């Protein structure tokens, strides 16, 4: 018994030495949006590869979790795929936290259906009707006579809240919506379910080769009935606002970011970080108002 | 002098063990008390009647925050009921097989094998529900996906089976040989003896086994979280996507700001769960002990 | 009137049904193990077991999760084992039998049936918030330890019960004090049994996800936890996020299977160790 324990501990010590040594600095803790978690995790990994001594830990849990984390001061950076609610900002100030926001990427929220669904386009209002549960059959929006199978996220998701505000008109989601734990689960469900519809971040649409995942169809969305529809993969449409449901992706800090956090953030919104953002399927911050807001937040 | 020192030692050691006992009991009692104390503030804002009887759970709704747990309770009952429907007959049959049909060598091998099933972590069962059982059920029932109550029931049945088998088998074996031998002597076959003599004699043990299995199913979290779809609606059928009380807590505990009504409400659900599972386990335990005492 | 032949037929059919039930259960178990073994086996390699995840966790291994599970189970053991065994000794050897102790035992036994998520809730409010441990490996370990405590107390008591009264009476007749009696005539025989039950409880704790979900488990950490207040990766949580939250869940499905295989191997290995221990000491006592 003792021999086994000794060997086990020795092996552990040996392996401990093989992993990169912990830095003298504290680890940067990042929590929040599932839409952003993989993007941020890859950014962290690449940043740590280039910056000896950097230590970053990334967790998911949904935008709500990140916001709560920053308010409770259990993390340094909060990823959120939506803006903070005024209630949350009030709560933060009450607890002595002053949140500052940085836009690190832009997302075109994509409405996806199973590839067997003959529909090509929907209006924002129609998507809202589907997700409020006002409409239960695809026939009502011009599709086949088949029951709608709703896939969405849980209430801690920033995407959930964003959809609720901008697409559902601040009304309740249908209680029949299956609430998945992450974007990828929604996609997996849709691929198997012919009557399915779901909403995911644009960075989740493509497979490793860069094509849209097999079994998925991305719908064009138009603002008005009869108006032109745009795809979320169309960068120009997202940037110009022609694609109606695009949104900035935020990282929030408590007050002015500390030195190591500021360096990481600056790298993310700089050319190297933004190249990775683009590589992962999201859109860059661009040179417009988001960049200006970021510059102000750094000061 | 030596005796005095020894007495002191004895007293010290006794005090140490008493302290451990007291500490352990306090810690465990503390769980109930903490839940109670943290759940009570929820009812400053939520009416208890609404909490227990409303079908709508939507604490983050922009329209009106609602805290009704009836749909979650119903979902829990549905998956648990379905699980018991599957697990009880099969479990008793396997227990009867092990106690009455199997050769003792076969039994020695198969009992630990059944225990292996009990050892599989719930997250692994949930994973298999996601990748193996769910898609299979979707094909069988011609639904688009396998994220529903049936999937949950099948998985929970698998998890409850080892408990039901083990305890039922123990109680079948505990039936006094005199009774079974009398039945055989009177001309009954082994099957008739099993069905009409042993099972009725061991019935309280079997009931206790069922209740313990049920307690396990009610309290299961990861399996149902991964495999049942988590829709908040009141379930109308076994093919609906459901959200149990355990999933409800697990989904929202991570994002809830501490010390808000929503936070307290989650603890209230936890309290309800605690009371239900504790009660079920208690009844089963009492039945089991009384039955064992009677047989002695 | 049932003829002998008809009785025989009914029995044959009945027993066939029972055999079928057994077969069904065995088939399900075999299917599960085969599926995980085959699909997970393909992902297992030395690299998988000894390296950290890379490239957005689509490559590399699960070493931090293995270490995390090992460390948090260690903390669980530190809380649950000595306290559990001592509390059992108190209940069984020192406490006067009374309604109170019977009620205590009943309560403790039934606390092991309380859902793991409820222990998670308790862990959040007590260890993470009130004791200000934050989400850390210590908070998670304490939560798991509390969850395992009823189990270790009950299992230790069962082991103590198997020691005949005569062992104790013999020692006391020779003039030994209570503690001397326990130390020389009870514990040496009971400890193996206590350990068996304890190891089974620890195996269960190692596989639990709900209690560590909100008390310390992390999605991705580049380094091993270096102090008790660090977060940690763990096998069950890793499986959960690889299967549901990862951005490329179909691509990493083999890695998820590999994680499941390692987790099952760990838990079943511990279980088997306990069974072997029980078998060995039963033979010794005979």
Map the helices and strands.
The complex is a heterotrimer of chains A (299), B (296) and C (286).
Chain A (H helix, E strand, L loop, with lengths): L1 H17 L9 E5 L1 H17 L5 E6 L1 H9 L5 E4 L5 H9 L4 E10 L1 E5 L6 E3 H9 L16 E5 L4 H9 L11 E3 L2 H10 L3 E5 L15 E3 L1 E3 L12 H6 L5 E9 L4 H11 L1 H9 L9 H10 L1
Parallel strand pairs in A: 1-2, 1-3, 6-11, 7-8, 7-9
Antiparallel strand pairs in A: 3-12, 4-12, 5-9, 5-10
Chain B lengths: L1 H38 L2 H4 L2 H6 L3 E2 L7 E2 L2 H32 L2 H16 L2 H20 L7 H26 L2 H9 L4 H12 L1 H17 L2 H6 L17 H8 L8 H35 L1
Antiparallel strand pairs in B: 1-2
Helix pairs in contact in B: 1-13, 4-7, 4-10, 5-7, 6-7, 7-10, 8-9, 10-13, 12-13
Chain C lengths: L3 H38 L4 H5 L2 E2 L4 E2 L2 H32 L4 H13 L4 H15 L6 H25 L3 H9 L4 H29 L3 H4 L21 H10 L8 H33 L1
Antiparallel strand pairs in C: 1-2
Helix pairs in contact in C: 1-11, 3-6, 3-8, 4-6, 5-6, 6-8, 7-8, 8-11, 10-11
Question: Your description of this structure?
Answer:
The complex is a heterotrimer of chains A (299), B (296) and C (286). With 299 residues, chain A is α/β, with parallel strands linked by helices. Chain A has eleven helices and twelve strands. In chain A, the strands form three sheets. In chain A, strands 2-1-3-12-4 form a five-stranded mixed beta sheet. In chain A, α2 links the parallel β1 and β2. The longest helix of chain B has 38 residues. Chain B is flat, with a radius of gyration of 24 Å. Chain B has a two-stranded antiparallel ribbon with strand order 1-2. With 296 residues, chain B is mainly α. Helix content of chain B is 77%, strand content 1%. By secondary structure, chain C is mainly alpha-helical. Chain C has a two-stranded antiparallel ribbon with strand order 1-2. The chains are: A alpha/beta (299), B mainly alpha (296), C mainly alpha (286). The interface between B and C is large, with 87 and 82 residues.
């Amino acid at each position: 018994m003792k021999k086994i324990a000794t060997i086990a501990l020795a092996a552990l010590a040996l392996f401990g030495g093989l992993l990169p040594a912990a830095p003298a600095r504290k680890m940067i803790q990042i929590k929040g949006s599932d839409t952003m978690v993989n993007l941020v995790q890859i950014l962290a990994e690449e940043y740590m590869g280039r910056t000896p001594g950097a230590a970053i830990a990334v967790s998911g849990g949904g935008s709500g979790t990140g916001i709560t984390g920053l308010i409770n001061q259990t993390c340094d950076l909060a990823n959120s795929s939506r803006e903070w609610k005024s209630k949350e900002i009030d709560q933060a100030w009450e607890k002595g936290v002053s949140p500052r926001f940085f836009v690190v990427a832009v997302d075109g929220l994509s409405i996806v259906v199973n590839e067997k669904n003959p529909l090509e386009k929907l209006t924002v209002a129609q998507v809202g009707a589907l997700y409020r549960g006002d409409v239960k059959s695809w026939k009502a929006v011009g599709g086949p006579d088949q029951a709608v199978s709703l896939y969405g996220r849980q209430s801690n998701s920033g995407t959930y809240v964003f959809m609720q505000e901008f697409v559902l008109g601040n009304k309740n989601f249908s209680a029949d919506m299956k609430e998945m734990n992450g974007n990828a689960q929604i996609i997996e469900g849709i691929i198997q379910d012919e009557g399915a519809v779901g909403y995911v971040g644009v960075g989740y649409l493509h497979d490793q080769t860069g094509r849209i995942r097999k079994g998925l169809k991305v719908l064009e969305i138009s603002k008005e009935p009869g108006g032109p529809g745009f795809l979320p993969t169309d960068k120009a449409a997202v940037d110009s606002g022609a694609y109606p449901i695009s949104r900035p992706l935020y990282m929030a800090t408590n007050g002015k970011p500390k030195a190591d956090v500021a360096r990481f953030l600056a790298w993310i919104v700089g050319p190297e970080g933004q190249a990775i953002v683009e590589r992962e399927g999201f859109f860059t911050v661009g040179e417009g108002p988001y960049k200006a807001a970021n510059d102000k937040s750094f000061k | 002098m030596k005796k005095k020192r020894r007495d002191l030692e004895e007293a010290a050691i006794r005090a140490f063990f008493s302290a451990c006992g007291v500490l352990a009991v306090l810690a465990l009692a503390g769980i109930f008390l903490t839940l109670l104390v943290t759940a009570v503030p929820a009812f400053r804002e939520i009416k208890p009647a609404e909490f227990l009887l409303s079908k709508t759970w939507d604490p983050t709704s922009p329209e009106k925050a609602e805290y009704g747990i009836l749909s979650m309770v119903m979902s829990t009952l549905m998956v648990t009921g379905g699980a018991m429907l599957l697990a009880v007959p099969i479990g008793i049959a396997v227990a009867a097989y092990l106690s009455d049909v199997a050769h003792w060598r076969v039994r020695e091998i198969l009992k630990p094998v059944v225990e292996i099933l009990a050892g599989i972590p719930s997250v692994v069962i949930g994973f298999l529900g996601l990748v193996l059982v769910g898609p299979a059920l979707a094909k069988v029932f011609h639904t688009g996906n396998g994220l529903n109550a049936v999937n949950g029931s099948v998985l929970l049945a698998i998890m409850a089976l080892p408990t039901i088998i083990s305890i039922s088998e123990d109680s079948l074996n505990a039936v006094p040989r005199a009774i079974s031998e009398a039945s055989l002597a009177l001309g009954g076959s082994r099957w008739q003896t099993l069905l009409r003599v042993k099972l009725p004699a061991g019935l309280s043990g079997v009931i206790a086994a069922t209740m313990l299995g049920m307690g396990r199913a009610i309290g299961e979290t990861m399996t149902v979280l991964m495999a049942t779809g988590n829709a908040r609606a009141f379930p109308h059928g076994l093919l609906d996507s459901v959200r149990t009380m355990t999933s409800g807590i697990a989904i929202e505990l991570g994002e809830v700001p501490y010390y808000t009504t929503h936070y307290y409400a989650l603890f209230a659900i936890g309290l309800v769960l605690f009371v239900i599972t504790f009660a079920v386990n208690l009844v089963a335990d009492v039945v089991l002990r009384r039955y064992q005492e009677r047989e002695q | 009137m049932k003829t002998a032949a008809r009785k025989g037929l009914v029995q044959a059919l009945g027993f066939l049904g029972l055999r079928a039930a057994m077969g069904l259960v065995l088939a399900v178990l075999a299917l599960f193990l085969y599926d995980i073994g085959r699909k997970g086996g393909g992902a297992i390699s030395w690299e998988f077991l000894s390296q950290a995840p890379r490239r957005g966790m689509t490559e590399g291994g699960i070493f931090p999760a293995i270490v995390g599970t090992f460390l948090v189970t260690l903390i669980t053991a530190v809380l649950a084992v000595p306290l559990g065994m001592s509390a059992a000794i108190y209940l069984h050897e020192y406490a006067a039998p009374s309604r109170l102790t019977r009620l205590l035992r009943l309560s403790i036994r039934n606390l092991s049936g309380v859902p793991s998520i409820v222990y998670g809730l308790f862990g959040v409010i007590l260890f993470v918030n009130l004791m200000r441990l934050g989400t850390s490996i210590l908070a998670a370990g304490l939560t798991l330890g509390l969850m395992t405590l009823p189990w270790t107390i009950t299992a230790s008591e069962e082991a103590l019960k198997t020691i005949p009264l005569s062992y104790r009476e013999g020692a006391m007749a020779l003039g030994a004090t209570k503690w001397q009696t326990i130390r020389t005539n009870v514990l040496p025989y009971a400890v193996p049994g206590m350990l068996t039950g304890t190891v089974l409880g620890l195996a269960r704790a190692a596989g639990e996800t709900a209690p560590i979900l909100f008390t310390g488990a992390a999605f991705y950490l580049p380094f091993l936890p270096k102090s008790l207040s660090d977060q940690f990766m763990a096998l069950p949580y890793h499986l959960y996020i690889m299967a549901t939250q990862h951005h490329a869940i179909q691509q990493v499905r083999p890695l998820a299977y590999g994680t499941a295989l390692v987790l099952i191997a760990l838990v079943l290995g511990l279980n088997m160790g306990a069974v072997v221990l029980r078998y060995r000491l039963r033979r010794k006592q005979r």
